[in-house]
Here is the input.
Amino acid sequence: MKQITNYMLNKISIILLFIFCENQIQAQCITTNVPGDLIISSNIILSGTYNVSGTFKVLPFVTVYVKTYSSGGCGKLIINAQKISIEGTIDGNYAGYTGGTGGLGGNIVSSLTGDQTAINTCSNKDNTGIIIVEGGKYGNNGLGTGAGLKGQNGQNGSGPKQQCLSNDDECGMIGGAGGSGGGGGASYGGSGTTAANGGSGTSSYTATGVNVSTGYVVFSGNGGVGGNPGNVFGTDTGQDIDMGSGGAGGGGGGRSYDVGLAGGKGGNGGGLIQLIAIDTLKITGKILVNGEAGAAGGNAGNGGISPNCCSDGCDDSGEATLSCGAGAGSGGGGGSGGGIYLESQTIATITGILQSNGGNGGNSGIKGDGTTANYSGGVFCGNQTIISGNGAAGNKGGAAGGGRIKIFVPTCSSSTVTPNYTINGGTGYTNASNGSYQVMCGVTSINESIKEQFALRVFPNPFSENVTIQFKYDETPEFISEITVLNTLGMIIKTIASDELKYNRTIQIDLSELTSGIYFIKTTINNLSYDYKIIKQ
Here is the structure.
């Protein structure tokens, strides 16, 4: 009869979880209490905290996807259960904090002399004038504590328009604008890296048989400076854990005759997966929280030629305005690896695959090409050739650092912790640092046998309202300190006098006022410390 009841509870729980996931429409971390076992037998998307009173299991060839922070989830999956077994996959790739959006491409043409239309039409044909083309714009910072930072805008390009003269018309030449610097890589366990500068436009040209106007200097815009990485945060061995941070967005391409294009977004950070088993923890499948690569920077505008503007016998190349190639934007920053936290309070077998790699920096956009004007006027008008130069490509965005993997077991000797893990930093303009992997074992010493003599049972766990504390054996200690209940920040929530336990051997503590979450019961018995983690449903 018990097996039938558990089976029905499992089916109901899974149905409720599917409904719950389908109806999440805003970023949230809701806590869900699941009675009995929760066996995941088909692919599903989960987000938030699940307190399972029995066993949580992911079957082979089944994937649990962590709903991403950017699409209405909270980027985290926290499981508190009596037993946990992961034979399939929990996929938190790219589920963490969002990468920044890419910068806009250079689009605006302006003029201090009112001749902005001369880039592609005729304007004030007999007089000099200046044309200015806009540099590419920087992207936005990523999100999260270790988010990558945006680069700087590319500089504008400028130059004189064409000018019709009584003899030997002078062509115009506009220098290409610079692309924006790339987005910095994000950091968590390892440090991300700085992005490359944006590609510069060019003011170079070659002219044969024709003069370029000297009314204004042909000026090319430099590429913007690349963005810096975020800061490493968190601890290697503490009980803190977090999602990965997002990389900054890629830079936009500079303008020339053609507009520059927008840069791509920075990579999302990896998600957070935390599994805490009151009893056994078994990981033979995969847990993945890799960061996302940044997208490419924006393409630069190509050069072009305006119509011929003079009305004379030689319709030569000196009658047009040419523009040089612009510089491309550098790529977006990678998102950092996320966080994996695994804990068993009895025995752990962890032999599967654990990944928390940083994302790569995005590639440069495509440089802007120049253009060529030729004229063959024969004996009377001569031959002319003018070629404007190509702009420069940018380079890669900043690479992201690896994340953090933390494993807590009571004793190393009783557990098997040999996962195939990777915490690599990403590749980019320069390569990022690896993250951190740590296995923390409880203290083993001669005092362990003495501690066992006065060990306590704390049940039920997880609990709803009351927790019972009871000595496992009949020994009576000489000294018991007061019993304290603490939250995860170390703040004392409740204190119980020691005599209640020493002389009654069993006490019940009312914790109904607590919110759902993790707490600790601490006491000292005969100068030895006893700590018990409890979970409120």
